[in-house]
Structures are given as C-alpha cells and as structure tokens.
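Late entry, written up from scratch paper. The run itself happened at the end of the previous shift, but nothing got recorded in the book at the time, so transcribing now.
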Amino acid sequence: MISKYGIFCKVIECGSFTKVAEEISYSQSAISQSVKSLEQELGTTLVTREKGGIRLTRDGQGYFPYLQEIYNAEQSLERKHSEMQGLENSLIRIGTYTSISRYYLPLVMKAFKEKYPTVKFELHQGDYQDIIQQVKNRQVDFGFTTPSAASGLPIKTFYKQELVAILPADHPLAEKKTVTLADLAAEPFIIDDEGKFSLPLHFFSEAGLTPNIEFHLYDNNSIIIMVEQGLGVSIIDRVFLANTSANIVIREIEEKPTRLLSACWHNWDTMPIAARKFLKFFLSQPEFQDTPK
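Output as recorded:
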C-alpha cells in the first residue's frame, strides 16, 4: 500500500495520473480520488491538469516539499520495519558519481548480495553537490563525495585516486617527464563538468591559477577523444586510463593532485541498518586498507 502523500509525490514526479496508476497498479480514478482527498485535507487545490501534463499550483508548490518529507519518512519507516526482521527486502539508497559506480560499487554490491540475496540497491547518480544535497535531504542513505566538496556532514575517506595530465601525442609538453599546473593552465583546457564543485578548478585555484577553458564536457571518454584530436589538454583520474587505446600522452603533475574518495552520511545512528552494514562491508574491502587517511 502507498499513502496519499506517496501517490501525490509520484504524480508530480511522473507528471501524469495515468503513469502513476500503471506503476503502482491502481485505477486512474483511485489516483485522482487520492489527490482530491489530500486537497480536501489541506483545503486547497494542489495541481492543475494541462495539455503538457500535471502542474503544481502556487499552493501546491508551497506544500510539496513538506509532502515529500512525509513520504520520505514513510519510506524510512517501511525500511526500518523490514530491517527489524533482518535485511529481508531492504532497500539501500546510494548517492554516487561515475568513477565509484563504474569501478568500485559493482563487485562489492555483487558480493554483498551473495550474503543478502533479497537486498535491493537504488543508485542516484550525480555530481558532488547533488550527492551532498541528497544526503542532507535524506533522499539517499549515504553518498560518495570528496572532502573538499562536503560541508557539515560526517565523512570517511577510504581511497586516493591520482590525477594526471593527458596531452595530445605531438604536444610540446609531451617532451617533459612531468608537467605543472601552470603548464596546463596556459594551454587550451578541456574540463570535466562536475557541477558547482570541480576538483581540477579547486587545485588551479589553490595554486593561484586560472585555466584557459575551451570545452566543458560531462564524459571522460569524450575528453580523452578530444585530447587525442589535439583540441586541448586535460586532467583526469588515472583509473579512467587503464584500458584506453587512445593515442595520447599521460604525464604526472608535479603538484601531485589527488581525488580523495570518501563516503558521507547524515546521521550514522539513524541510517538504515542495511545501509550501515553495506557501507561497513564496502569500506572493509582489502584495496581500501592501505590508503593513508
């Protein structure tokens, strides 16, 4: 069963009464009645139907964050009820970004499900700021981030990723054994658009440098291809270059910039038991044990 608060939130998320009815196997009239009941309870009209779909009224916009909070609390209560009976059908919600979800999470999730087969995972992909906000709003149980981006949350650093420079094969800087941030800032720069917080920009700023940014991209593979074509230089996690066949040059950076992989959460004691068990399991992996903290 799903409450009228949950139904309303799903209607806004899907933008359609019909889609929600199909998703939760209710009749469309039952969905409409649920929303109408909520409007009667609050004494106002929350949504209007338009050609483009469902739209929140001004009152609806004011109430929506509170209704979301109630629905999130209901979901937390349901998860807690499941956890009190063990991890049976528990849902673990994780805020994550590309390198974590591509290189670290899959194998650990597989191993955890071998111990707890009915556990389910819900991954919310985003940039650092998205993840921090999701943790603060309790939309995820915990998230992965980097200490420089986190503020006001408990955090545990578990691994270091080396950042390196990538250059076109015929670039003059390719003749050097190592390059500096100043070398890279002076060249056309291709940056991975990580949202409001960018780790390369953070290191440039710490060095008092402003890079000559030519392109903002959202995909590391695209960055590698554009560097290969001579369109600029970039800074990237070495892990992304493990299997690349691109004709590029990789150089260490003298300032030794690193990405600190960290987990953050809102409150450890109130985090769902399943999420706590999984995070402990994740952090106990052998590859994370020798990393300086």
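The mean pLDDT is 90.
(Scratch paper discarded after transcription.)
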